[in-house]
Amino acid sequence: MTPAEPDALDKPWRLWASVAIISVLAFSVVFGFLILPVVQGRAAGIDAFTAICRAVGIAAGSPAAPQPTSSARAEPATEVAWSTRLLGNLSRRTESGVELTELERVRFVPLVRSRG
Question: What is the domain count for the chain?
Answer without folding.
Answer: 1
